[in-house]
Amino acid sequence: HAGHGAAMATPRTMRAVQYDKYGGGAEGLKHVEVPVPSPKKGEVLLKMEAASINPIDWKIQKGMLRPFLPGKFPFTPVGDLAGEVVELGSGVTNFKPGDKVISISFP
Where, by residue number, does the polypeptide cross the bilayer (predicted)? Predict the structure, then answer.
């Protein structure tokens, strides 16, 4: 496809799904525009290509894990994702821009 391999500027904003309080189920999820974060030391910035909302995500949203995960709102749920590395934080040596990766994260 056109431009494959060419360096592209990182956009300033991105789309995200967030909720701003416990409860609400699917209706509590909002599509929002948020600033693209800069990767910190040891982190990579990904262009997300696929993500899932898993049972742990709805349990967090419902407030079932409050004793372990106090709410910081707004919250962007994401457990499993696949994407492409677009930017490296300092100290990252095992990845390079363009690498396709998967991630399993826990808040």
Answer: none
